[in-house]
Amino acid sequence: MAPVVRLIAVLMAVFVLAGCEVNKETRTAEEIQAAAYQHDGPPSLTLYTMVSNDTGKGAHTSLLINGSQRVAWDPAGSFRAESIIASGDVVYGMTPQMVDLYTRFHARETYHVIIQELPVSAAVAEQALRTVMSHGAVPQATCAASTSAILRTLPGFEGIPSTYYPLKLYEGFKQYGPTESKLFEYDGDDKSKVLEAYDAQRVAETRATRKAAN
């Protein structure tokens, strides 16, 4: 590629990315602290890869981190609602109900979700948690690139490929020996109904009732 053509291509890419929307939603420190959820499972990283049922191509990448609290790194994602505490690309309060909701939100008749869960040391999980919380939101079409860049900063994960392609990141993460499962659902593409059905207050009241009963 000629230098001038290459320069034009780079500038076009910059302008396109600059024009992409990012998740500008912010929450107060008090809201984030109130939403924090500590999961009693082992420290882990769970990579989500959303795959088209029509073409077999990757469509989205995200990362669930279980450290001193459990959060989802959902880069340029659309899993957002008033009852969901998200700041930038980090979704807080990832309780079992929220994890289930998050996974089902992405699985539908046109896409399925590959779930790769990998136990890690507490130090690695905590570093991943700190990294995403301080990262800031990213433009659309950079979900795999930003996630791979984050993973590559973690001790032992330097071999993760730097890529814009969710399936290439999936293959790279697979080399570390995670457990793998897939979720297929066959409802329509309008996933707003999944969010509308989520009642955070009702879930909190149910959890409090069960805790009191025990």
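The above is record 1. Record 2 follows with the same two-line structure.
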Amino acid sequence: MSSKRFKKLPVNTKKMEPNGIEKLLTEVKKNCTTKFDESVDLHLQINNKQKKSEINIRTVVNLPSGTGKKVKVAVVCEDARVQEAKNAGADIVGGDEFIDKIKDGQLNFEKLICTPSMMIKLSKLGKVLGPKGLMPNPKLGSVSDNIKQAVLDAKSGQVEIRNDKDGNIGLSIGKKSFHDNELLKNYYAILDVLEKEKSNNTVKGNLIKNIFVTSSMGVSYKVKLNKTI
């Protein structure tokens, strides 16, 4: 049963003609009628079904305006580097004992960073970390000797871009309270990363089929792309 609030929102927005992201942000914000600071979210559909292979995107984007969320970051490192990780702003830091806690299912963090020399031990916990998407990965910058930079990236707005088996990608570009320009910077940063991914993969036709923008508790609008990717 729909709430009174939801019934007041526009209907059949998916049947509307696609519009530019700049105009749609205004509409999305109008629909943010809850009492909390709703997220502004993107839902992308990519052309992952190719004749010879399937496109699987897994990369990161550093959102210039951040995410508006506090991210709890954990670091697995050598004992000699624990203080370095704490100084960098990590919320949880440890070595072998911390790995044992993770093994027991203590996953009270949202991002996990690991130094290369400790990754051998951590890699054995794939069954624990993998399903949660928490396994550190060198390509995503979460396996690094530069602990300070890795923690800074994780805290300041680094977001993973990953499609599911049906070619769907979902991620937030910020909050309702963000200025439109801040949301737009994040939106175009995501498109830039996807454009690079297209050039790195053999894609027949466009990589992006559709983009929709919505808010946490709002309705969805189709975005008109001003260039093909």
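The longest strand covers residues 39-46.
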